[in-house]
Amino acid sequence: MAQKIIKIGTRDSQLAVWQATLVQDLLKEKGVAAELVYIKSEGDLDTTTPLYELGVQGVFTKALDAALLSGRIDIAVHSMKDVPTQLAKGIIQAAVLKRASYKDIIVYKGDSNFLSDENSSATVATSSVRRIAQWLNRYPNHSIDNLRGNVNTRLRKLDESNWNGAIFAAAGLERIGLRPENSIELDWMLPAPAQGAIMVVCRKDDTESFIALQSFNDTNTMLCTKIERDFLRTLMGGCSTPISALAEVKEGTIYFKGNIISTDGKLKAETSFTSSIKDAADLGVKAAQDILARGGQEIVDQIRQKGLTK
Hey, what domains does the chain have and what are their CATH numbers? Predict the structure, then answer.
């Protein structure tokens, strides 16, 4: 029987297509034919409503989930940080690609002096609740404006605005060669869980696609992103929350840092752990339980009252 041509579902933004084409090329290297199928997501169709009002949980993945479950596509490629911690019934994680940069960057206009003075006044743009919370925690006098759209649209809006800067994921801009020279890595800002990683999913009953994708699954990235997403899920569950996490493997040891910050930036709880790889399976859950006991529960309760956990 002839091998099927795997249909890869992707959003049609430049970054999403780049990621899907990467998976297509990896499959081709293994002798597996694949073609791209373009799907519009709710998050692409509405580019003005702040993400926290849309209820980000699955806003970029629902349309691809539906296409996958209906058989229109065989696999879907996602920026892993956009994927709900609980996958839709009938869909499974088939591969996590080797992680690119997990860092956030600010693209600034004019000079960057406002970054060196934590008492400065400036306006910075982002639609991420996590970035807003961390930014206001560090720069309490700054104003935040909403910025939606794909990376090309956001760069254009920044250029046309009177903002001092806008925050982006480094990986998103670097993958498609759009990172401007006037950008600075925010080494102090913890990333979203799984930021910089790409996840590929398939139907639970599609053994052929699952096996084809396993060949380029990166075990270290898979473990680190699992820990980070376990931390997120145990705390709140949703990705439209001011929760940050980073797990890294260094010489056989896992180093984890996580925090949760109130949406106004005024309250912050943080935690850190180290673990051997063999003992790291429940590290994300353990870290979440630790942070709840260190003031995190008060922040979680406050966020729930504001209704940001749709």
Answer: 6-98+197-217 (3.40.190.10), 104-185 (3.40.190.10), 228-306 (3.30.160.40)
